[in-house]
Amino acid sequence: MKKIVLACGAGAATSTLVAQKVATMLDANGYAGKYEIVQCAISEAKDACDEGADLLIATTVAPEGLTCPYVSGIPFLTGMGAAQAQQQILDILSK
């Protein structure tokens, strides 16, 4: 089971929207039932990575010293660069 941490400023609004889009994309690419998305505030993201996350997706600047790969969640909000962000996620999760 892949653990994906989705972080935004407070861990509520934009991370929820991005989580829905990421889940839909992952399900469409054969990952249904193979991942868990955990939402949090960006201030909690480093700890969440340290606890074994496979990926951090954040809608704000990622903290320094991450122990897991990071993909920007902004393309899921704006649509610009969404295909590239989706491919980055799929590449990371395929490892």
Which helices and strands appear, and what pairs or packs with what?
Blueprint: E1 2-8, H1 13-28, E2 35-41, H2 45-50, E3 55-58, E4 70-72, H3 74-78, H4 82-93
Parallel strand pairs: 1-2, 1-3, 3-4
What does this structure look like?
The chain is an alpha/beta fold and 95 residues long. It is built from four helices and four strands. The protein has helices spanning 13-28, 45-50, 74-78, 82-93; strands spanning 2-8, 35-41, 55-58, 70-72. It has a four-stranded parallel sheet. It is globular. The two termini are 12 Å apart. The mean pLDDT is 94.
Give a nutshell description of this structure.
With 95 residues, the protein is an alpha/beta fold. It has four helices and four strands, in the order βαβαββαα. The protein has helices spanning 13-28, 45-50, 74-78, 82-93, and strands at 2-8, 35-41, 55-58, 70-72.
Defining traits:
single chain; 95 residues; alpha/beta; 4-stranded parallel beta sheet; 4 helices; globular
How are helices and strands ordered from N to C? EHEHEEHH
Distinct helical segment count: 4
Query: Main sheet?
Result: 4 strands, parallel
Task: Give the N-terminus to C-terminus distance in angstroms.
Answer: 12 Å
Report the average pLDDT across residues: 94
Q: Which parts are unreliable, with pLDDT below 50 for 5 consecutive residues or more?
A: none
Identify the strand order in the major beta sheet: 2-1-3-4
Helix content: 40-55%
Query: How large a portion of the residues is in β-strands, by DSSP E?
Result: 15-25%
Which oligomerization state do the chains in this entry correspond to? single chain
Care to count the β-strands? 4
